[in-house]
Write a structure and sequence with these properties.
By secondary structure, the chain is an alpha+beta fold. It has one domain: Alpha-D-Glucose-1,6-Bisphosphate, Chain A, domain 4. Strands 1-7-6-5-4-3-2 form a 7-stranded antiparallel β-sheet. α2 crosses α5.
Length: 182
């Protein structure tokens, strides 16, 4: 990317890109969530379009500042949640993207982004939307990471609840995208 970056520093974790090709790091917490989004190529295309233009995050209630309107390798994004002094920004960099292919057959599209300094976690998260041979559209969210500081580690139970809430919001946002609601 040319010009000033919206988030400084570099990727700060081991296993860069492993949400695409695996294996996931063995020494960190890994979470995988899946949900049914709908049926048919139109639902798949709507969900993928929204995912690859940051609408998935926005629909989950996050404030999104990105270097690119579309998800592209190397783009940086800062997602924020909370309010006022309780706002947490989560800077990331896109480490891989798989675009949809022409046609209506079975396929998947997605992307993964990794954490940058200032994120409450050090790790990676990926979003993949697939359509199978019967037209069933699914989303899979894969994440791994460790707290980035003692402060975030100390809030273990609260951090797990926040992570579960954000994941459920991602899943709801994806279902709305597939249905054409967003």
């Amino acid at each position: 990317m040319n010009g000033p970056r919206i988030a400084p520093g570099g990727l700060n974790y081991a296993g860069i890109g492993s949400t695409e090709h695996g294996p996931l790091p063995a020494d960190v917490e890994c979470l995988v969530s899946e949900a049914y989004l709908g049926h048919g190529p139109a639902a798949y295309r709507r969900a993928v379009q929204g995912m690859l233009t940051w609408q998935l995050q926005r629909g989950a209630g996050l404030r999104v500042r990105a270097e690119s309107d579309a998800v592209v390798p190397g783009a940086r994004v800062v997602s924020g949640f909370g309010a006022g002094p309780f706002r947490i920004d989560a800077p990331c960099e896109v480490v891989w993207v798989r675009a949809p292919v022409p046609g209506d057959g079975p396929q998947s599209a997605g992307f993964g982004y990794g954490t940058l300094p200032g994120h409450p976690v050090r790790g990676e998260e990926a979003f993949e939307i697939s359509i199978d041979g019967n037209g069933m559209v699914l989303i899979k969210i894969t994440a791994f990471g460790v707290p980035s500081s003692w402060f975030y580690a100390a809030g273990g139970a609260l951090a797990k609840r926040a992570r579960a809430l954000i994941t459920s919001r991602y899943l709801g946002s994806a279902q709305e995208l597939a249905a054409g609601v967003n």
